[in-house]
Each structure stands twice: as C-alpha cells, then as structure tokens.
Specification:
Blueprint lengths: L1 H5 L1 H9 L2 H10 L4 H14 L3 H9 L3 H10 L2 H21 L1
Helix pairs in contact: 3-4, 4-7, 6-7
C-alpha cells in the first residue's frame, strides 16, 4: 500500500476506496507496534492530499494520533507529528 500511495494520483483513489478507516483500525488494534508504524507511515504519505486530510478528520483519527504521541514508539511519533502538522497547515491556510 505504501508504494501505491506515494504516487500523488493514487492518494485520492486510496481514500475513496476506504483506506483511512482501515488505517485507523490498524492504529487502534492491539496486535503490535509494527502495524501501527506501518499505518502511520501510510497516513503520513497520504496527509499531503486534501481528500485524505478531510477523511482523516472525518473518521476521528486526531484523538488516536494524540494518544500515540504519548504512548507510541519514536518512529511512530515522528509520523504522527508529520500528520498533525499537515492537518494544522491545511486548517491554517483556510483561515
């Protein structure tokens, strides 16, 4: 999924196919940090797309991201900050 989502043209397609709710489930699944890190990496790549940003906010991912900032692994925290920054910059541009 990561490699497919790197291409800008696929980001919107992935969002419309339902990737964001699936990634949110991966973030909240207690099976291990490896899946969380992978989900955060993909969300970080997607967060450069306006459609993905809207989907991330819509499915209430922000509280999960905030929690991961407190409890996550260093690499996951880095991706979490990148996602939140991207969301913030989008909001700031609209003001």
């Amino acid at each position: 999924m990561f490699n497919l989502c790197i291409y800008q043209g696929n980001k919107g397609r992935a969002v419309r196919a339902g990737i964001v709710p699936a990634l949110l489930r991966m973030l909240t699944d207690s099976r291990g940090a490896a899946m969380v890190d992978k989900a955060l990496t993909i969300l970080s790549v997607l967060s450069s797309n306006a459609e993905a940003k809207a989907a991330i906010v819509k499915v209430s991912t922000i509280p999960v991201l905030i929690d991961l900032l407190r409890t996550g692994q260093p690499r996951g925290k880095e991706n979490t900050v990148a996602i939140l920054l991207s969301l913030f910059l989008e909001k700031k541009e609209r003001l």
